[in-house]
Amino acid sequence: MKIIFASQNGRTNAVIWQKDLGLIMARVMFNNGTVEDQVCDSGDMRSAANEWSGSYSAVHVAELDDLQSAFKYLGKASELSETLPEVNFYDSPSSDS
């Protein structure tokens, strides 16, 4: 599945994924350490990447096998998620494209 990692100030602050067709979710870590799942306004991952890139200093799109693996990067140094091979939305189809 394609995952968007949104980073700011050197930390991965949000993990964005497609839960269902037309339903994009984000797990966001706030500065106080609390974590919240949010429904994104965007209806697809391409739009979500554009939306989140306006609020965060960097977005990185990677393909992972499962969502729990993606959540492990939340709150960690953005350099860690950036080591995952970057993909774009035009690469071979996955279950969430």
Q: Can you characterise this structure?
A:
The chain is 21% helix and 36% strand. With 97 residues, the protein is of the alpha+beta class. The protein has one domain. It has a 5-stranded antiparallel sheet with strand order 4-3-2-1-5. The longest helix is centred in the middle third of the chain and has 11 residues. The C terminus is likely disordered.
| Distance between the amino and carboxyl termini | 8 Å
Q: Work out the strand percent.
A: 35-45%
Total DSSP helices: 3
Instruction: Enumerate the spans where pLDDT stays under 50 for 5 or more consecutive residues.
Output: 93-97
Strand order of the largest sheet: 4-3-2-1-5
Cα shape: globular
Number of strands: 5
| Classification by helices and strands | alpha+beta
List keywords for this structure.
97 residues; alpha+beta; 5 strands; globular
Write a brief caption for the model.
The chain has one domain. The protein has three helices and five strands; from the N terminus they run ββββαβαα.
Question: Layout of SSEs?
Answer:
Layout: E1 2-8, E2 11-20, E3 23-29, E4 35-39, H1 45-55, E5 58-63, H2 67-71, H3 78-81
Antiparallel strand pairs: 1-2, 1-5, 2-3, 3-4
